[in-house]
Amino acid sequence: MSPKKMVSETPVEEPQTTPQPKPERKWNYKEVLSWAGTVLAIGIMLSILFRFNPFTFLKPKAEPVATVSAEVKLPEYAPSGGAQFSLVRALDFDTEIPEGFRQFPVKYTIQEGDSIFGIAKRFNIKPESILWANYDLLNDDPTYLAVGWKLTIPPTDGIYYKWKEGDTLEKVAEQYQADVQDILSWPSNRLEITNPSTTNIEYVMIPGGYRELKSWIVPLPFAPRSGATRVIAGPGGCQAPATGPVGSTAFIWPSYNQSLSGFDFTSYHLAIDIAAGEGAPVWASDTGTVIYAGWNDTGYGYMIEIDHNNGYQTLYAHLSAIYVSCGSNVYQGTTIASAGSTGKSTGSHLHFEVRYNGGFVNPWSVLGY
After folding, report:
1. Going from the N-terminus, what domains does the chain have, and what CATH number goes with each?
2. pLDDT at position 84, please?
3. Cα dihedral sign for 333, 334, 335, 337?
């Protein structure tokens, strides 16, 4: 019997292994953005495909609108066989501001600082049309407006004429260089074209009518070298000397401002109204001799006139203060006064005239621009 092999019961130790930590996953932000963009694009495509707006929750919910399905029938129109009646709206002649196209005249209340020029621009008509319509009040004088006066503002350019006994359409049209047909067709005149009747007419609008305006400016005598030798009438005049500095004829603006605040040069306003506040300095437009310095009753208020001893004279009106005396010599740019609103004026400005050998010259033609 063969001997049995001895088996060792000593356990065999297996080699131990140390567990390794799992590698940490790092996110690639570019990859994340790429996936997010892909998901968003797919979502937008699906919403377009199924007409689904995922942002409807941002919109305010609309209130349900009640609908009426019943059909409402209006009564049939049955014209009356009797007299027809209509509602006529009364005209408001005290309207302050025009609205749209006007067919009738309105009343405007003059306020502080108003001028005919400014009012005409506001109503989009010519200043002459306002003067023609208010002759009884203004007497063709565009410079004097009293606060509180009510002016008649015609609806269009032309003459708003007060009808007189014995007038005829033909005679009035000829007098004011207008067309009879234009008078007949103007709505506010209410004249029948085929058989016009002027009975009970108080005023008539003459579209395009025209007449000459009376110039309100009083011509003043000039200095000896200008052809006049007598003393200027009025408290501010004096006997001008026969000698004095001669102007250059290169006139400068007599104030800081070079814009208008009132009337421009016209056939009835032979000057320009320069924008100048109360107390603004006024200086001589050219060298010369003062031949008037003081108050003037004809509407100029405090006024200065300078003879430039070369045929030209300049006049400065509505002044609030005067710094020169009659007979003194002044030089171009010398401060001679302060602007104001004396005389026939409702707002501060400088009335500036240029005269040459007894006639009036448009200041724009001699002033530098």
Report:
1. 106-207 (3.10.350.10), 224-365 (2.70.70.10)
2. 47
3. negative
